[in-house]
Amino acid sequence: MKREAFKMYLKAGFEKEYQKRHSEIWPELVKLLKANGVSDYSIFWDKETNILYAVQKNNGAGSQDMGENEIVKRWWDYMADIMEVNPDNSPVSISLEEVFYME
């Protein structure tokens, strides 16, 4: 099991909408993530910069590596209007290097 973290960019003015959409996350997306080994997944929001910091555990393929799946593509399309995205509507995300961990 590996831990990974990455950051994404929320567009200004969409903070509440982002939280709303995630509080209503699609059950089929959660099932897909879990079935592919993603667990202990959290997203933190820096209010000063509108940067989202995601942390998850996975068994190889993380959530950002599932872009060929139709459910993931639909989620990315659904979120594209409130986040900075790539041409395929995947969120612009930058991997973060772990520099400290305490169990």
UniProtKB/TrEMBL annotation:
<dbReference type="GO" id="GO:0005737">
    <property type="term" value="C:cytoplasm"/>
</dbReference>
<dbReference type="InterPro" id="IPR013448">
    <property type="entry name" value="L-rhamnose_mutarotase"/>
</dbReference>
<dbReference type="InterPro" id="IPR008000">
    <property type="entry name" value="Rham/fucose_mutarotase"/>
</dbReference>
<keyword id="KW-0413">Isomerase</keyword>
<dbReference type="InterPro" id="IPR011008">
    <property type="entry name" value="Dimeric_a/b-barrel"/>
</dbReference>
<keyword id="KW-0963">Cytoplasm</keyword>
<dbReference type="GO" id="GO:0019301">
    <property type="term" value="P:rhamnose catabolic process"/>
</dbReference>
<keyword id="KW-0684">Rhamnose metabolism</keyword>
<protein>
    <recommendedName>
        <fullName>L-rhamnose mutarotase</fullName>
        <ecNumber>5.1.3.32</ecNumber>
    </recommendedName>
</protein>
<dbReference type="Pfam" id="PF05336">
    <property type="entry name" value="rhaM"/>
</dbReference>
<keyword id="KW-0119">Carbohydrate metabolism</keyword>
<dbReference type="GO" id="GO:0062192">
    <property type="term" value="F:L-rhamnose mutarotase activity"/>
</dbReference>
